[in-house]
Amino acid sequence: MQRGRGRYPPAAVDTAGVPSLLTYAVTPHVRPGPGGASVGDARGSAGRRSRERVDRGPRSRAARGRGLRAVAFTIDWDNQHVTCPRVTVSTIWSPCIERKRPSIVVRFPATACQACPSRAQCTTSIRNGRQLMLRPRPIHEAVERARTEQTTYGWKDRYAARAGVQGTIHQAVAVSGIRRSRYTSLPKTHLAHVFTATALNLIRLDAWWTANPLGRRRTSHLTRLDLTLAT
After folding, report:
1. Which of 21, 62, 153, 224 sits at a 20 to 30 Å CA gap from 97?
2. Which pLDDT does position 57 carry in this prediction?
3. pLDDT of 111 higher than 80
4. Of 20, 51, 27, which Cα lies nearest the Cα of 161?
C-alpha cells in the first residue's frame, strides 16, 4: 500500500486487517498467474513439486492452428533424435543454454524440408529446415501434460474464475483507488478497506438487479476523438 508521495514514512503492511475482498478456491499446488508459461516451475528430475499456473500462456504460431506444434513430432529421448510427421529424422541434437535455461536445439536437414509438401505448415524459414527448441525431458513432459489439461472443461472452469478475480481487482482500483492509502494509520486504512468492500458489493448488487453488465470494452482516446469528429 503506497503512502502519499513521501510525506509520511512507510507503515507496516496491514496483513491481518485487510478484509478478504477476493476469494479464490484452488486445488493444492495450483495458483493463478498473470502471463507466461502454463507450468510455472517444473522440477521433475530434481524431485521438487511441480507447480501449475492457471494461465493460458503465450500463443505461438503453431498454437493458433497455423503450424505444426512440437507435440506432432516423435521425440526419442534415449537416442536423441526427433522424427517429424513426414518421417524425416533430425540431424542435429544440441544441448544449450537459452535465456539462462537448459534447452535442446533440434534441427532437420534443409534439403528434406525444402522438398516437403507440409513446409508451409511447418516452418517459415526459406533457407534452413525446421528447428525445435525443447526443454529437458521432465519439464517438456510436464508442459505437454498441462497443455493437454487446458482442453478439459475442468481447467476451463478454473480459468474462468480468474477473469472474475481480475475484474474485481480492476473495479476496486478504478472506483476507489485502493492501491494508495488516504490515511496515515492502520486502523483508518482498515476502515477504508471495509468501506471499499461494502461499496463494491453494493455496485455489483445494483448491476445484478438492473441487468447492467459491469464489463465494457475500452475505447481508446484516439477512437473517441475519431467518433467525436465523425458526428
Report:
1. 62
2. 53
3. yes
4. 27
